[in-house]
Structure formats: C-alpha cells, structure tokens
Amino acid sequence: MKPKLFMTRKIPERGLSRIRENFEVELWPGEAPPSKEEIINRIKDKQALVSLLTDPIDEEVMEAAPGLRIIAQYAVGFDNIDLEAATRKGIYVTNTPGVLTETTADFAVALLFSIARRVVEADKYVRSGKWRVGWHPLMFLGRDVHGKTIGIVGLGRIGSAVARRMKRGFNMRVLYYDVMRRHDLEKELGVEYVDLETLLKESDFVSLHTPLTKDTYHLVGERELRMMKPTAYLINTSRGKVVDQKALYKALKEKWIAGAALDVFEEEPLPPDDPLLTLENVILTPHIASASFDTRSKMAEIVAENLITFKNGKVPPTLVNKDVVKVRKPGF
Ligand code: GLV
Ligand code: GLV
Predict the structure, then answer these.
(1) Which of these, 207, 144, 146, 145, lies nearest to 175 by C-alpha position?
(2) CB 1 within 8 A of CB 22
(3) 239 flagged as catalytic
(4) Reduced to 3 states, what is the DSSP secondary structure of residue 234?
(5) What pTM was computed for the model?
(6) What is the torsional sign of CA 304, 310, 314, 317?
(7) Mind listing the pLDDT tens digit for each residue in 267-293?
(8) Which of 69, 287, 296, 305 is catalytic?
(9) Given ligand 2 and candidates 94, 101, 155, which is best to mutate, with the most ligand atoms within 8 Å of its CB?
(10) What are phi and psi of 118, to 5 degrees?
(11) Among 94, 95, 96, 157, which residue has the most ligand 2 atoms within 8 Å of its CB, making it the best to mutate?
(12) How far apart are CA 123 and CA 294, in angstroms?
C-alpha cells in the first residue's frame, strides 16, 4: 500500500507525477492556503506532508497526525515549521535549497535596479499619459549602481550569488555581515566582512539574505534604518519579519532612506490598507523571487526526490533537521 500524503497546494507536474507514483496523494484544491484547522482535518491519517511557506506547521498540527513521518517543504525557508517539535517527534523535515539560489539572486538584482533607476515609477508615468515633453535633462533621475557599495546581510548561498553578480558584473564594492565569517568566500568573491553597523552606514544598497529566526526577527528596525545613508536603498527578498515594517514605513515616508524594494512582508498577502501602498519610493512584489518556470519545476523534483528517498529507507538529500536520524530511522 502506498503511504498517504497531504499536499497543501498543487506543485509543478514534474515533481507531482513522481510523487503520485509513490504516494496516495490528497491535494488541497484551493489556490489560497488551507487554514490550520483545514490542515489538521486532512493530515490526521497521513504519513507525509508537502507544505508551503504559508502553512503553519506547529506542534498541534504534528500531534493531529500520529503517523506523520516526513514534512517535505516546497521552499528553501522553513520558518513556518516548528523544527524542534518535528525533531522530537522523529519527523523528517526537508526543504528545496540550491536550485532556487541563482533565480532568487537574479530577482534581488532586478529589484535593486528597478528601485535605483525608478523603472516601475517610470512605466506608470508613460502608461498614465503623463509623458508630454519628450526627453528632458531632469526627468526621472535615479542613482547609479555600478561602482557603488552594496551591503549583503547573510552571505549564504543566495547572498553569495548576489555578491558575485554585483562584484563581477557591476564593479561594486561588496560588504557583508553574517554571524559566520566566511574567509573562503572573502577570497573567492572579493567581499569584505564588516559589522552590521558599518555595513548600514557605508552601503548604497543593503540587500537582506538571512533566514528568519529568533535572532533575525526585526534585525532591521528604526535604529538600523537611521544608520543608513539618506541616498541608500533597502532590498528584501528574505522574509518580511526580518524588517520592522512599521519602522520602514516611517523611514521611507520621512526619507531617512531613499527607497526600498520588497518581495516579502510581515503579513502576506500585504493587506490592502497597508500604508506602504501609499508611497512612491518603494517597489512591492508578491513574494516571487524564486518564481521562474525552470526553478519551480526543479523545486518540485527535489520535493519528490526527498519523499521517495525517505520511502526507500534512506536519509533524504536535503534534510533540514539532521538530528532526527538519532530519533528515528528513515522510512515508513
Ligand atoms: C521562498 O521564499 C522560499 O523560502 O523558498
Ligand atoms: C539559501 O538558499 C541561502 O543559503 O542563502
């Protein structure tokens, strides 16, 4: 008999079809995420779960499913899952790192250029029929990227991929701050390690690439935003809660900084009455940094690979809670 699996949203066919060959799949039919109650109702008799970053997978959810053995997250970030509880209960948790690194870095760079050169604002201007004077020496002046300083907060896979692009492609000075000093990458990429304060004070662009943890919650708040240059921009493709969004609104409104480009928010979707929506100096995108056809398919393949490897009694390739192997052997 195939193990039973609940999937909280349809994932690309390349992974889904392989999963169906190996599991009895119950697929959440909606576009919108199931509520926690709906997850609990459907997970009760399941041995496996495919979750998204929008799904709260806490201890209560795990307790509702005594037979649950693996949570295969379709995302690199997994702050929606109570990892400690999972490990204690012998539940394997996997994610989809690596395949989305370059795609996400591409998007961070796209946001950076769009805010610095006012691409979105300019597009709205042309569409709304306001472009009446042809070329003008002072129209839509923005700021250069090449040769400036970028500060990367979190030099993991994605942070490094952004650093490489900006150093090699745009001749930028690249500063980074991380809890771990990366001497190897400093050499390889030509990046400089600084403390967070120095990074904020010296960068023309600050780009966030940390996971969300207890330590990175509101890492960038009022104090940090006030350290940034009034000509600097903040780019966030990590998690909304890494930034104190109320403080950021104030910083943008009162022009402590020049602008921000955000793919992630403290609450998603961004509520329709959010004050950020009233500002010109911010670009807002709906959490799409990894959203390329190729990458989303590859993420689905990794989810399938993790699930099938586990089913075959082996440790899944991108296991997150490595200590779980001491609690329970892989397999159903
Ligand atoms: C997207 O934000 C992810 O964590 O994959
Ligand atoms: C995520 O893949 C990271 O380590 O940056």
Answers:
(1) 207
(2) no
(3) yes
(4) strand
(5) 0.95
(6) positive
(7) 999 999 999 999 999 999 999 999 999
(8) 287
(9) 101
(10) 60, 40
(11) 157
(12) 27
